[in-house]
């Protein structure tokens, strides 16, 4: 499986003999020994440091269908370089648009997506319940919402999103019980006010860009979404799919990293009224994240081992099948 | 599949071989590469090498391992290049 490469060091990336060459630069601007990245082993690039590159490189990456995701100084996702769409399918596009324009159809998908997300959140709570964290109160509250959503046949999307907000609020309250040494004290973003919030923001942005990258490899149009309102300037379908996977991938990882003390107070920078992961913290998180995505689980229907990254792609395929009327969509539900 | 590829080529073809291998694998030391690669990609690599090597003189040896974790790697002295995807 080709890998995701994370570029932390500032430097120059260039095309070299039909492959890539990365020349890191130190603080004084002197070039250091270059490293060569095998082009055939790259799935996507995540750029966290400052990068020098020219259009010849981007032409080449476009040809090789390698997306590049950029993150700013505070490790916020800022955007991607996406190669030209290569899986064009008018039929899917039309079906996807139709599924969006007909409220009844859209609601079916939106509800399923949300259902998947909430189910996975409940699984998380159940997991920690078994490990002696007292989270039943939150669990039962969320279960009520879950049932309302399952039964909602006719409900405006806005109301559905409202319920989603309620669920999240309760869910995030449970974080304070699950996480040992840090307090979360409610969700805060732009900027995150404390360590847990910083981790959630950081994790979510990588989950989002994982979904962007995987949707790119399917026939779906990333701008037409069902649960979230298709807005301008963002791939809202990726937000939809991230909804299902955030509890599975991001939250679980955060709990593990904090409770096993792999990420500690020294891995954060607190400036003014904001809290961000610093470079070493980011590296620890991304290493664990990368490992996580490579991990495989046994897929029951296929009777095959599937990595978490692949699972996201399969979620997209399920959506394609749903809009084409081949198979009804059922969201990914964690079983453990 | 995880492989270690070593080659021994005539001086004129060494550069070609190195450049070719760099597109697929990580360089670890002179004429030795290693990395994760699929069956098909490896075939592609060898086929391309086939175009320019002199079979009467050169040799390419590929050690295959099912996964990286089945490979015990010991380094004595200098590690010339670490193969990390965090750069």
Automatic annotation (TrEMBL), chain A:
Residues annotated to bind Mn(2+): 164, 228, 243
Tree of life domain: Bacteria
Cofactor: Mg(2+); Mn(2+)
Enzyme type, top EC level: hydrolase
EC identifiers of the protein: 3.1.-.-
Keywords annotated in UniProt: Antiviral defense, DNA-binding, Endonuclease, Hydrolase, Magnesium, Manganese, Metal-binding, Nuclease
UniProt xrefs under InterPro entries: CRISPR-assoc_Cas1, CRISPR-assoc_Cas1_C, CRISPR-assoc_Cas1_HMARI/TNEAP, CRISPR-assoc_Cas1_N
GO molecular function: DNA binding; DNA endonuclease activity; hydrolase activity; metal ion binding
Any matching Pfam family: Cas_Cas1
Biological process (GO), any one: defense response to virus
Gene3D superfamilies: CRISPR-associated endonuclease Cas1, C-terminal domain, CRISPR-associated endonuclease Cas1, N-terminal domain
Quaternary structure, from the entry: Homodimer, forms a heterotetramer with a Cas2 homodimer.
Role summary: CRISPR (clustered regularly interspaced short palindromic repeat), is an adaptive immune system that provides protection against mobile genetic elements (viruses, transposable elements and conjugative plasmids). CRISPR clusters contain spacers, sequences complementary to antecedent mobile elements, and target invading nucleic acids. CRISPR clusters are transcribed and processed into CRISPR RNA (crRNA). Acts as a dsDNA endonuclease. Involved in the integration of spacer DNA into the CRISPR cassette.
Matching NCBIfam families: cas1, cas1_HMARI
Family: Belongs to the CRISPR-associated endonuclease Cas1 family.
Protein name: CRISPR-associated endonuclease Cas1
Organism from which the protein derives: Microscilla marina ATCC 23134
TrEMBL record, chain B:
Binding site for Mg(2+): 8
Keywords: Antiviral defense, Endonuclease, Hydrolase, Magnesium, Metal-binding, Nuclease
Source species, domain of life: Bacteria
Biological process, per Gene Ontology: defense response to virus; maintenance of CRISPR repeat elements
Coiled coil: none
A Pfam family recorded for this sequence: CRISPR_Cas2
UniProt-listed Enzyme Commission number(s): 3.1.-.-
GO molecular function per UniProt: hydrolase activity; metal ion binding; RNA endonuclease activity
Co-factor requirement: Mg(2+)
Role this protein plays: CRISPR (clustered regularly interspaced short palindromic repeat), is an adaptive immune system that provides protection against mobile genetic elements (viruses, transposable elements and conjugative plasmids). CRISPR clusters contain sequences complementary to antecedent mobile elements and target invading nucleic acids. CRISPR clusters are transcribed and processed into CRISPR RNA (crRNA). Functions as a ssRNA-specific endoribonuclease. Involved in the integration of spacer DNA into the CRISPR cassette.
Family: Belongs to the CRISPR-associated endoribonuclease Cas2 protein family.
Quaternary structure and interacting proteins, as annotated: Homodimer, forms a heterotetramer with a Cas1 homodimer.
Name assigned to this protein: CRISPR-associated endoribonuclease Cas2
